[in-house]
Amino acid sequence: MSRPMPDTPAPALSLPLSGGGTWTLNDPKPEHFTMVVFYRGYHCPVCKSYLQALKAVLPKYRDAGFDVIAVSMDDAERAAKTVSEWDLDGLPVGYGLTRAQAEAWGLYLTQAIRDTESAVFSEPGLFWVRADGRLYMAAVANMPWARPDLEFLASKIPFVLQNGYPARGTVS
Questions:
Q1: Is residue 13 part of a domain?
Q2: CATH number of the domain encompassing residue 102
Q3: DSSP secondary structure string for all residues of the chain
Q4: Domain around 96
């Protein structure tokens, strides 16, 4: 598995949005960052809690100049259920992530162990991409409960912006 390197161009990403339209990374350009939150899919109760927490802190990220999207390998029907049943109105939800796209982002892939799961789905990942398209931060997990704390991350935005804190992990 390869992984994208910080401070280099982020992998391309363009997906349909639940509710209509298409989302493309850095189109339009955010003021500071785009935060891409990859989640496992509709079958995941941990994802439900995490995305509901994301919706709750979404104003903090938007006020700080972030565009935010949640993305999964789910199909349109499952993505629509995610938005409606998890009460995610206002949070852009992209669907149809391909295996090749997931691999380009360095996400772990899992084969279903239950009938309610998609046959293959990506495990969680959270990325900040600079407005110029360079990857700034990457957090990738192979388990549903190993995810960054969204409130804690939001609390670090002023430090990052005020101090021009550089991307880390750029050596290897």
A1: no
A2: 3.40.30.10
A3: ---PPTTSBPPP-EEEBTTS-EEETTBSPPSSEEEEEE---TT-HHHHHHHHHHHHHHHHHHHTTEEEEEE-S--HHHHHHHHHHTT-TTS-EE----HHHHHHTT--EEE-SSTTS-SEEEPPEEEEEETTSBEEEEEE-SSTT----HHHHHHHHHHHHHHTPPP-----
A4: 32-151
Answer whether residue 76 is part of any domain. Answer: yes
Give the pLDDT confidence of 16-25 residue by residue, as tens digits: 999 999 999 9
Residue 69, amino acid = I
pTM equals 0.97
Domain assignment present for residue 105? The answer is yes
| pLDDT at residue 2, rounded to an integer | 82
